[in-house]
UniProtKB/TrEMBL annotation:
Compartment(s) where it occurs, according to its Swiss-Prot or TrEMBL record: Membrane
Residue ranges occupied by any SLC26A/SulP transporter domain in the UniProt entry: 14-380
Topology within the bilayer: Multi-pass membrane protein
High-level lineage: Bacteria, Bacillati, Actinomycetota, Actinomycetes, Kitasatosporales
Keyword entries, A-Z: Membrane, Transmembrane, Transmembrane helix
TM spans (from-to): 17-37, 44-64, 84-106, 118-138, 168-185, 197-218, 238-261, 324-353, 374-402
Name of this protein: SulP family inorganic anion transporter
InterPro entries: SLC26A/SulP_dom, SLC26A/SulP_fam, STAS_dom_sf
Length: 489
Protein backbone atom coordinates (compact mmCIF):
# COMPACT_ATOMS: atom_id res chain seq x y z
CA UNK A 1 0.00 0.00 0.00
CA UNK A 2 1.10 3.60 -0.66
CA UNK A 3 0.69 5.98 2.27
CA UNK A 4 -0.29 9.64 1.84
CA UNK A 5 2.75 10.63 3.89
CA UNK A 6 5.07 8.96 1.38
CA UNK A 7 3.33 10.67 -1.55
CA UNK A 8 3.91 14.05 0.11
CA UNK A 9 7.65 13.47 0.11
CA UNK A 10 8.95 14.76 -3.26
CA UNK A 11 12.27 12.92 -2.87
CA UNK A 12 10.50 9.55 -2.44
CA UNK A 13 8.12 10.25 -5.35
CA UNK A 14 10.94 11.28 -7.71
CA UNK A 15 13.10 8.29 -6.80
CA UNK A 16 10.25 5.79 -7.17
CA UNK A 17 9.06 7.24 -10.48
CA UNK A 18 12.58 6.90 -11.88
CA UNK A 19 12.69 3.31 -10.63
CA UNK A 20 9.33 2.62 -12.28
CA UNK A 21 10.72 3.66 -15.66
CA UNK A 22 13.56 1.14 -15.27
CA UNK A 23 11.08 -1.61 -14.35
CA UNK A 24 8.87 -0.66 -17.31
CA UNK A 25 11.77 -0.95 -19.74
CA UNK A 26 12.67 -4.37 -18.30
CA UNK A 27 9.06 -5.57 -18.25
CA UNK A 28 8.07 -4.49 -21.77
CA UNK A 29 10.06 -7.03 -23.83
CA UNK A 30 9.47 -9.76 -21.25
CA UNK A 31 5.68 -9.27 -21.26
CA UNK A 32 5.61 -9.51 -25.04
CA UNK A 33 8.08 -12.40 -25.20
CA UNK A 34 6.26 -14.50 -22.60
CA UNK A 35 2.95 -13.96 -24.42
CA UNK A 36 4.34 -15.00 -27.79
CA UNK A 37 6.07 -18.06 -26.30
CA UNK A 38 2.80 -19.00 -24.58
CA UNK A 39 0.95 -19.06 -27.89
CA UNK A 40 -1.32 -16.08 -27.18
CA UNK A 41 -1.54 -12.56 -28.70
CA UNK A 42 1.34 -10.34 -27.63
CA UNK A 43 -1.03 -7.73 -26.20
CA UNK A 44 -2.29 -10.17 -23.55
CA UNK A 45 1.14 -10.18 -21.95
CA UNK A 46 0.88 -6.39 -21.60
CA UNK A 47 -2.60 -6.73 -20.08
CA UNK A 48 -1.22 -9.01 -17.38
CA UNK A 49 1.69 -6.65 -16.77
CA UNK A 50 -0.72 -3.71 -16.43
CA UNK A 51 -2.95 -5.56 -13.94
CA UNK A 52 0.12 -6.79 -12.04
CA UNK A 53 1.39 -3.23 -11.74
CA UNK A 54 -1.69 -1.15 -11.09
CA UNK A 55 -3.97 -3.58 -9.25
CA UNK A 56 -1.56 -5.84 -7.35
CA UNK A 57 0.73 -2.87 -6.77
CA UNK A 58 -2.00 -1.14 -4.75
CA UNK A 59 -2.76 -4.18 -2.59
CA UNK A 60 -0.95 -5.08 0.66
CA UNK A 61 1.60 -7.87 0.74
CA UNK A 62 5.03 -7.07 -0.64
CA UNK A 63 5.87 -3.43 -1.26
CA UNK A 64 8.66 -3.88 -3.76
CA UNK A 65 8.19 -7.07 -5.77
CA UNK A 66 6.68 -6.64 -9.24
CA UNK A 67 4.06 -8.94 -10.76
CA UNK A 68 3.35 -9.82 -14.37
CA UNK A 69 3.53 -12.67 -16.90
CA UNK A 70 6.41 -14.99 -16.03
CA UNK A 71 8.62 -17.34 -17.99
CA UNK A 72 7.98 -19.93 -15.28
CA UNK A 73 4.36 -20.35 -16.39
CA UNK A 74 5.04 -20.27 -20.13
CA UNK A 75 5.09 -24.05 -20.53
CA UNK A 76 1.89 -24.58 -18.55
CA UNK A 77 0.03 -21.81 -20.42
CA UNK A 78 1.16 -23.15 -23.78
CA UNK A 79 -0.05 -26.64 -22.87
CA UNK A 80 -3.39 -25.27 -21.63
CA UNK A 81 -3.97 -23.18 -24.76
CA UNK A 82 -3.01 -26.10 -27.01
CA UNK A 83 -5.26 -28.58 -25.21
CA UNK A 84 -8.28 -26.46 -24.23
CA UNK A 85 -8.11 -23.44 -26.56
CA UNK A 86 -7.38 -19.76 -25.95
CA UNK A 87 -11.00 -19.05 -24.98
CA UNK A 88 -10.73 -21.38 -21.97
CA UNK A 89 -7.54 -19.75 -20.69
CA UNK A 90 -9.50 -16.90 -19.06
CA UNK A 91 -11.74 -19.14 -16.90
CA UNK A 92 -8.72 -21.26 -15.89
CA UNK A 93 -6.77 -18.19 -14.76
CA UNK A 94 -9.83 -16.72 -13.02
CA UNK A 95 -10.51 -19.95 -11.11
CA UNK A 96 -6.84 -20.22 -10.15
CA UNK A 97 -6.95 -16.63 -8.88
CA UNK A 98 -10.02 -17.28 -6.75
CA UNK A 99 -8.30 -20.36 -5.32
CA UNK A 100 -5.29 -18.21 -4.42
CA UNK A 101 -7.56 -15.72 -2.66
CA UNK A 102 -9.17 -18.52 -0.64
CA UNK A 103 -5.74 -19.93 0.26
CA UNK A 104 -4.58 -16.49 1.34
CA UNK A 105 -7.58 -15.89 3.62
CA UNK A 106 -7.12 -19.43 4.98
CA UNK A 107 -3.53 -18.42 5.87
CA UNK A 108 -1.92 -20.96 3.57
CA UNK A 109 0.72 -18.45 2.44
CA UNK A 110 3.23 -19.34 5.13
CA UNK A 111 2.90 -23.05 4.35
CA UNK A 112 4.38 -22.51 0.90
CA UNK A 113 7.63 -21.76 2.72
CA UNK A 114 7.65 -25.43 3.79
CA UNK A 115 7.88 -26.71 0.21
CA UNK A 116 11.26 -28.31 -0.45
CA UNK A 117 13.59 -25.77 -2.03
CA UNK A 118 15.03 -28.56 -4.20
CA UNK A 119 11.58 -29.29 -5.64
CA UNK A 120 11.07 -25.61 -6.46
CA UNK A 121 14.54 -25.37 -8.01
CA UNK A 122 13.86 -28.57 -9.94
CA UNK A 123 10.53 -27.18 -11.12
CA UNK A 124 12.18 -23.99 -12.35
CA UNK A 125 15.03 -25.95 -13.93
CA UNK A 126 12.59 -28.23 -15.77
CA UNK A 127 10.60 -25.23 -16.97
CA UNK A 128 13.83 -23.57 -18.08
CA UNK A 129 14.92 -26.61 -20.08
CA UNK A 130 11.53 -26.89 -21.81
CA UNK A 131 11.56 -23.15 -22.62
CA UNK A 132 15.05 -23.35 -24.10
CA UNK A 133 14.19 -26.43 -26.19
CA UNK A 134 11.10 -24.75 -27.61
CA UNK A 135 12.54 -21.29 -28.17
CA UNK A 136 15.54 -22.60 -30.09
CA UNK A 137 13.06 -23.47 -32.84
CA UNK A 138 11.37 -20.07 -32.51
CA UNK A 139 14.77 -18.40 -32.92
CA UNK A 140 14.99 -20.03 -36.35
CA UNK A 141 11.40 -19.03 -37.29
CA UNK A 142 10.54 -22.69 -37.69
CA UNK A 143 7.75 -24.83 -36.29
CA UNK A 144 8.59 -26.73 -33.12
CA UNK A 145 7.57 -30.31 -32.26
CA UNK A 146 4.79 -30.87 -29.72
CA UNK A 147 6.71 -32.56 -26.89
CA UNK A 148 9.95 -31.72 -25.12
CA UNK A 149 11.48 -35.10 -26.03
CA UNK A 150 10.56 -34.55 -29.68
CA UNK A 151 12.16 -31.10 -29.53
CA UNK A 152 15.31 -32.63 -28.09
CA UNK A 153 15.38 -35.34 -30.76
CA UNK A 154 14.81 -32.73 -33.47
CA UNK A 155 17.81 -30.55 -32.60
CA UNK A 156 20.15 -32.14 -35.19
CA UNK A 157 17.54 -31.52 -37.87
CA UNK A 158 17.13 -27.95 -36.65
CA UNK A 159 20.88 -27.40 -36.93
CA UNK A 160 20.85 -28.68 -40.51
CA UNK A 161 17.93 -26.37 -41.38
CA UNK A 162 19.70 -23.35 -39.91
CA UNK A 163 22.83 -24.11 -41.94
CA UNK A 164 21.06 -24.82 -45.24
CA UNK A 165 18.14 -22.35 -45.14
CA UNK A 166 19.10 -18.68 -45.45
CA UNK A 167 15.88 -17.41 -43.83
CA UNK A 168 16.30 -19.72 -40.84
CA UNK A 169 19.96 -18.69 -40.56
CA UNK A 170 19.03 -14.99 -40.65
CA UNK A 171 16.38 -15.37 -37.96
CA UNK A 172 18.64 -17.51 -35.79
CA UNK A 173 21.38 -14.92 -36.14
CA UNK A 174 19.06 -12.23 -34.77
CA UNK A 175 18.08 -14.49 -31.87
CA UNK A 176 21.66 -15.50 -31.11
CA UNK A 177 22.69 -11.85 -31.30
CA UNK A 178 20.01 -11.00 -28.76
CA UNK A 179 21.37 -13.64 -26.37
CA UNK A 180 24.91 -12.34 -26.93
CA UNK A 181 23.88 -8.78 -26.02
CA UNK A 182 22.18 -10.04 -22.85
CA UNK A 183 25.37 -11.86 -21.85
CA UNK A 184 27.70 -8.97 -22.65
CA UNK A 185 25.58 -6.13 -21.26
CA UNK A 186 26.42 -6.63 -17.54
CA UNK A 187 30.13 -6.22 -18.37
CA UNK A 188 29.68 -2.82 -20.06
CA UNK A 189 30.24 0.54 -18.31
CA UNK A 190 27.59 1.67 -15.83
CA UNK A 191 26.58 4.57 -18.08
CA UNK A 192 25.64 2.12 -20.84
CA UNK A 193 23.90 -0.24 -18.43
CA UNK A 194 21.40 2.48 -17.53
CA UNK A 195 19.44 1.04 -20.44
CA UNK A 196 18.02 -2.36 -19.32
CA UNK A 197 19.61 -5.31 -21.10
CA UNK A 198 16.36 -6.87 -22.49
CA UNK A 199 15.29 -3.56 -24.03
CA UNK A 200 18.74 -2.95 -25.49
CA UNK A 201 18.93 -6.47 -26.96
CA UNK A 202 15.49 -6.30 -28.58
CA UNK A 203 16.09 -2.74 -29.77
CA UNK A 204 19.41 -3.63 -31.41
CA UNK A 205 17.97 -6.72 -33.10
CA UNK A 206 15.03 -4.70 -34.42
CA UNK A 207 17.35 -1.96 -35.70
CA UNK A 208 19.65 -4.47 -37.42
CA UNK A 209 16.70 -6.16 -39.12
CA UNK A 210 15.34 -2.81 -40.33
CA UNK A 211 18.66 -1.38 -41.52
CA UNK A 212 19.70 -4.59 -43.28
CA UNK A 213 16.35 -4.93 -45.01
CA UNK A 214 15.67 -8.30 -43.38
CA UNK A 215 12.14 -9.65 -43.13
CA UNK A 216 11.98 -11.98 -40.12
CA UNK A 217 8.69 -13.12 -38.62
CA UNK A 218 7.07 -10.55 -36.32
CA UNK A 219 4.14 -10.60 -33.90
CA UNK A 220 0.65 -10.02 -35.27
CA UNK A 221 -0.60 -6.92 -33.45
CA UNK A 222 -4.26 -5.84 -33.47
CA UNK A 223 -4.39 -3.45 -30.53
CA UNK A 224 -5.21 -3.88 -26.87
CA UNK A 225 -9.01 -3.83 -27.12
CA UNK A 226 -9.05 -6.34 -29.98
CA UNK A 227 -6.86 -8.77 -28.02
CA UNK A 228 -9.07 -8.77 -24.91
CA UNK A 229 -11.74 -11.45 -25.23
CA UNK A 230 -14.02 -11.70 -22.22
CA UNK A 231 -14.89 -15.37 -21.56
CA UNK A 232 -18.55 -16.41 -21.80
CA UNK A 233 -20.73 -19.00 -20.13
CA UNK A 234 -19.67 -21.75 -22.54
CA UNK A 235 -16.01 -21.25 -21.66
CA UNK A 236 -16.76 -21.32 -17.92
CA UNK A 237 -18.63 -24.58 -18.50
CA UNK A 238 -15.29 -26.18 -19.40
CA UNK A 239 -14.26 -25.85 -15.75
CA UNK A 240 -16.31 -28.98 -15.05
CA UNK A 241 -13.68 -31.07 -16.86
CA UNK A 242 -11.30 -33.02 -14.65
CA UNK A 243 -8.37 -32.11 -16.91
CA UNK A 244 -9.20 -28.41 -16.65
CA UNK A 245 -9.52 -28.65 -12.85
CA UNK A 246 -6.05 -30.21 -12.72
CA UNK A 247 -4.71 -27.30 -14.77
CA UNK A 248 -6.39 -24.79 -12.43
CA UNK A 249 -4.69 -26.44 -9.44
CA UNK A 250 -1.35 -26.41 -11.24
CA UNK A 251 -1.71 -22.71 -12.12
CA UNK A 252 -2.66 -21.77 -8.55
CA UNK A 253 0.00 -23.82 -6.78
CA UNK A 254 2.90 -23.05 -9.09
CA UNK A 255 2.09 -19.34 -9.41
CA UNK A 256 1.74 -19.09 -5.61
CA UNK A 257 4.99 -20.92 -4.91
CA UNK A 258 6.92 -18.84 -7.45
CA UNK A 259 5.48 -15.57 -6.07
CA UNK A 260 6.21 -16.37 -2.44
CA UNK A 261 9.70 -17.68 -3.10
CA UNK A 262 10.32 -14.48 -5.07
CA UNK A 263 9.07 -12.47 -2.07
CA UNK A 264 11.52 -14.27 0.21
CA UNK A 265 14.38 -13.47 -2.18
CA UNK A 266 13.39 -9.81 -2.52
CA UNK A 267 13.07 -9.40 1.25
CA UNK A 268 16.75 -10.30 1.51
CA UNK A 269 17.63 -7.46 -0.89
CA UNK A 270 16.25 -4.52 1.13
CA UNK A 271 15.82 -3.28 4.69
CA UNK A 272 12.18 -2.20 4.41
CA UNK A 273 9.04 -3.92 5.72
CA UNK A 274 8.92 -7.69 5.27
CA UNK A 275 6.33 -9.43 3.10
CA UNK A 276 3.09 -10.66 4.64
CA UNK A 277 2.82 -13.96 2.79
CA UNK A 278 -0.91 -14.43 3.29
CA UNK A 279 -1.73 -10.90 2.10
CA UNK A 280 0.62 -11.33 -0.86
CA UNK A 281 -1.16 -14.55 -1.80
CA UNK A 282 -4.51 -12.72 -1.71
CA UNK A 283 -3.07 -9.90 -3.85
CA UNK A 284 -1.76 -12.36 -6.42
CA UNK A 285 -5.16 -14.09 -6.42
CA UNK A 286 -7.03 -10.82 -7.02
CA UNK A 287 -4.67 -10.01 -9.89
CA UNK A 288 -5.15 -13.41 -11.50
CA UNK A 289 -8.91 -13.20 -11.05
CA UNK A 290 -8.97 -9.92 -12.99
CA UNK A 291 -6.57 -11.27 -15.63
CA UNK A 292 -8.83 -14.30 -16.05
CA UNK A 293 -11.90 -12.08 -16.43
CA UNK A 294 -10.06 -10.25 -19.23
CA UNK A 295 -8.91 -13.49 -20.89
CA UNK A 296 -5.24 -12.61 -20.27
CA UNK A 297 -2.18 -14.53 -19.11
CA UNK A 298 -1.72 -15.61 -15.47
CA UNK A 299 0.67 -13.62 -13.33
CA UNK A 300 3.24 -14.26 -10.67
CA UNK A 301 5.70 -12.06 -8.86
CA UNK A 302 8.75 -11.97 -11.14
CA UNK A 303 12.23 -11.98 -9.64
CA UNK A 304 13.91 -10.19 -12.60
CA UNK A 305 11.56 -7.20 -12.53
CA UNK A 306 11.45 -7.17 -8.73
CA UNK A 307 15.24 -7.15 -8.44
CA UNK A 308 15.44 -4.35 -11.01
CA UNK A 309 12.94 -2.39 -8.91
CA UNK A 310 15.00 -2.72 -5.72
CA UNK A 311 18.30 -2.04 -7.48
CA UNK A 312 16.83 1.09 -9.09
CA UNK A 313 16.24 2.51 -5.62
CA UNK A 314 12.51 2.02 -5.11
CA UNK A 315 11.33 2.20 -1.51
CA UNK A 316 7.52 2.20 -1.84
CA UNK A 317 4.81 0.52 -3.91
CA UNK A 318 4.56 3.65 -6.07
CA UNK A 319 7.23 2.34 -8.43
CA UNK A 320 5.42 -0.89 -9.26
CA UNK A 321 2.09 0.92 -9.70
CA UNK A 322 3.68 3.53 -11.98
CA UNK A 323 5.35 0.81 -14.09
CA UNK A 324 1.84 -0.56 -14.77
CA UNK A 325 0.72 2.91 -15.85
CA UNK A 326 3.65 3.16 -18.31
CA UNK A 327 2.73 -0.24 -19.74
CA UNK A 328 -0.87 0.93 -20.16
CA UNK A 329 0.17 4.12 -21.93
CA UNK A 330 2.50 2.19 -24.23
CA UNK A 331 -0.17 -0.41 -25.09
CA UNK A 332 -2.72 2.32 -25.76
CA UNK A 333 -0.56 4.78 -27.68
CA UNK A 334 2.17 2.70 -29.38
CA UNK A 335 0.81 -0.82 -30.01
CA UNK A 336 2.26 -0.92 -33.52
CA UNK A 337 5.78 -0.79 -32.03
CA UNK A 338 5.33 -4.39 -30.94
CA UNK A 339 4.69 -5.45 -34.52
CA UNK A 340 8.21 -4.56 -35.69
CA UNK A 341 10.09 -6.68 -33.12
CA UNK A 342 11.49 -9.90 -34.67
CA UNK A 343 10.03 -12.99 -33.02
CA UNK A 344 13.51 -14.53 -33.12
CA UNK A 345 14.75 -11.73 -30.85
CA UNK A 346 11.92 -12.32 -28.37
CA UNK A 347 12.78 -16.03 -28.47
CA UNK A 348 16.37 -15.11 -27.62
CA UNK A 349 15.09 -13.22 -24.55
CA UNK A 350 13.23 -16.37 -23.46
CA UNK A 351 16.22 -18.66 -24.13
CA UNK A 352 18.32 -16.45 -21.87
CA UNK A 353 15.56 -16.41 -19.23
CA UNK A 354 15.17 -20.19 -19.48
CA UNK A 355 18.89 -20.78 -18.95
CA UNK A 356 18.83 -18.57 -15.85
CA UNK A 357 16.11 -20.79 -14.37
CA UNK A 358 18.50 -23.76 -14.37
CA UNK A 359 20.82 -23.66 -11.29
CA UNK A 360 23.99 -24.67 -13.14
CA UNK A 361 26.42 -23.23 -10.57
CA UNK A 362 24.54 -24.41 -7.49
CA UNK A 363 24.17 -28.03 -8.55
CA UNK A 364 27.83 -29.03 -8.03
CA UNK A 365 28.07 -27.83 -4.40
CA UNK A 366 24.61 -29.26 -3.69
CA UNK A 367 25.71 -32.66 -5.01
CA UNK A 368 28.80 -32.64 -2.80
CA UNK A 369 27.05 -31.49 0.38
CA UNK A 370 23.46 -32.79 0.08
CA UNK A 371 23.37 -35.53 -2.53
CA UNK A 372 19.76 -36.47 -1.79
CA UNK A 373 18.61 -32.89 -2.44
CA UNK A 374 20.56 -32.80 -5.70
CA UNK A 375 18.89 -36.04 -6.84
CA UNK A 376 15.50 -34.57 -5.92
CA UNK A 377 16.22 -31.45 -7.99
CA UNK A 378 17.42 -33.45 -11.01
CA UNK A 379 14.54 -35.95 -10.93
CA UNK A 380 11.94 -33.16 -10.72
CA UNK A 381 13.51 -31.31 -13.65
CA UNK A 382 13.82 -34.40 -15.83
CA UNK A 383 10.29 -35.52 -14.97
CA UNK A 384 8.95 -32.18 -16.21
CA UNK A 385 10.87 -32.54 -19.47
CA UNK A 386 9.75 -36.14 -20.00
CA UNK A 387 6.11 -35.79 -18.87
CA UNK A 388 4.65 -32.36 -18.18
CA UNK A 389 4.85 -29.61 -15.60
CA UNK A 390 2.06 -30.79 -13.29
CA UNK A 391 3.10 -34.45 -13.19
CA UNK A 392 6.75 -33.53 -12.76
CA UNK A 393 6.04 -31.28 -9.77
CA UNK A 394 3.74 -33.88 -8.16
CA UNK A 395 6.48 -36.50 -8.55
CA UNK A 396 9.01 -34.13 -7.00
CA UNK A 397 6.76 -33.43 -4.01
CA UNK A 398 6.12 -37.15 -3.48
CA UNK A 399 9.84 -37.88 -3.62
CA UNK A 400 10.48 -35.08 -1.12
CA UNK A 401 7.99 -36.63 1.30
CA UNK A 402 9.52 -40.09 0.86
CA UNK A 403 13.03 -38.68 1.32
CA UNK A 404 11.98 -36.86 4.48
CA UNK A 405 10.31 -40.00 5.85
CA UNK A 406 13.40 -42.06 5.06
CA UNK A 407 15.76 -39.60 6.71
CA UNK A 408 13.64 -39.29 9.87
CA UNK A 409 13.27 -43.06 10.26
CA UNK A 410 16.82 -43.68 11.46
CA UNK A 411 17.06 -46.79 13.59
CA UNK A 412 20.08 -48.42 15.20
CA UNK A 413 20.41 -52.08 16.17
CA UNK A 414 23.04 -53.23 18.65
CA UNK A 415 23.68 -56.63 20.25
CA UNK A 416 25.51 -57.71 23.36
CA UNK A 417 25.94 -61.14 24.90
CA UNK A 418 25.46 -61.56 28.65
CA UNK A 419 27.04 -64.20 30.85
CA UNK A 420 25.12 -67.42 30.45
CA UNK A 421 24.78 -67.02 26.69
CA UNK A 422 21.73 -64.70 26.65
CA UNK A 423 21.85 -62.21 23.72
CA UNK A 424 20.29 -58.75 24.19
CA UNK A 425 19.29 -56.92 21.00
CA UNK A 426 18.55 -53.20 21.44
CA UNK A 427 16.69 -51.03 18.92
CA UNK A 428 16.87 -47.23 19.22
CA UNK A 429 15.51 -44.41 17.03
CA UNK A 430 12.42 -44.57 14.81
CA UNK A 431 11.37 -47.99 13.55
CA UNK A 432 9.14 -47.58 10.48
CA UNK A 433 8.25 -49.81 7.54
CA UNK A 434 10.86 -47.97 5.45
CA UNK A 435 13.65 -49.51 7.58
CA UNK A 436 11.95 -52.87 8.13
CA UNK A 437 13.93 -54.86 5.49
CA UNK A 438 17.23 -53.77 7.06
CA UNK A 439 16.04 -54.53 10.60
CA UNK A 440 14.82 -58.03 9.69
CA UNK A 441 17.98 -58.76 7.73
CA UNK A 442 20.09 -58.05 10.81
CA UNK A 443 17.79 -59.95 13.17
CA UNK A 444 17.76 -63.04 10.99
CA UNK A 445 21.56 -63.26 11.29
CA UNK A 446 21.30 -63.81 15.06
CA UNK A 447 21.96 -67.31 16.43
CA UNK A 448 18.94 -69.59 16.77
CA UNK A 449 20.38 -71.70 19.58
CA UNK A 450 20.73 -69.00 22.25
CA UNK A 451 18.14 -67.16 24.36
CA UNK A 452 17.41 -63.71 22.85
CA UNK A 453 15.87 -60.63 24.41
CA UNK A 454 14.62 -57.85 22.07
CA UNK A 455 14.76 -54.49 23.88
CA UNK A 456 12.43 -51.89 22.30
CA UNK A 457 12.42 -49.40 25.18
CA UNK A 458 14.84 -47.08 23.36
CA UNK A 459 12.55 -46.55 20.35
CA UNK A 460 10.96 -43.12 19.97
CA UNK A 461 8.47 -44.46 17.43
CA UNK A 462 7.37 -47.97 16.41
CA UNK A 463 4.81 -48.16 13.61
CA UNK A 464 2.26 -50.93 13.21
CA UNK A 465 4.08 -52.70 10.36
CA UNK A 466 7.31 -52.92 12.35
CA UNK A 467 5.56 -54.08 15.52
CA UNK A 468 3.76 -56.93 13.73
CA UNK A 469 6.90 -57.97 11.84
CA UNK A 470 9.02 -58.01 15.03
CA UNK A 471 6.42 -60.07 16.88
CA UNK A 472 6.29 -62.59 14.01
CA UNK A 473 10.09 -62.80 13.96
CA UNK A 474 10.20 -63.37 17.72
CA UNK A 475 7.72 -66.26 17.50
CA UNK A 476 9.54 -68.20 14.80
CA UNK A 477 13.25 -67.36 15.18
CA UNK A 478 14.59 -69.66 17.92
CA UNK A 479 14.83 -73.43 17.67
CA UNK A 480 12.10 -75.45 19.34
CA UNK A 481 14.40 -76.54 22.22
CA UNK A 482 15.38 -72.90 23.03
CA UNK A 483 13.06 -70.53 24.89
CA UNK A 484 11.21 -68.09 22.54
CA UNK A 485 12.55 -64.61 21.93
CA UNK A 486 11.27 -62.25 24.61
CA UNK A 487 10.32 -58.66 23.78
CA UNK A 488 10.80 -55.83 26.29
CA UNK A 489 8.83 -52.67 25.48
Amino acid sequence: MISVKELKNPHVVRRDLLASLVVFLVALPLCVGVAVASGVPAELGLVTGIVGGIVVGLLPGSRLQVSGPAAGLTVLVYEAVTEFGLATLGPIVLAAGLLQVVMGFARFGRWFRAISVSVVQGMLAGIGLVIVLGQLYAMADTEQPDTALAKLAGLPGLAVEIITDSEAMTAFGLGAGTVAVLLIWPRLPARVRMVPAPLAAVGLATAVAALAGLRPMVADVNGLLHAIDLPGAAEFGNLASVAVIGTVLAFALIASAESLFSAAAIDRMHDGPRTDYDKELVAQGVGNTICGALGALPMTAVIVRSAANVQAGATTALSRVAHGVWLLLFAALLPAAIGIIPLASLAGILVHAGCKLVPWKEFGPLWREHRGEAVLLAVTALAIVVTNLFEGVVLGLLLAVVKSAWETSHVQLSTRELTGGRVVVTLTGNATFLRLPRILEQLEKLPQDQPIELDLTGLRHLDHACRVALENWARRHNNAEIEPVTIRR
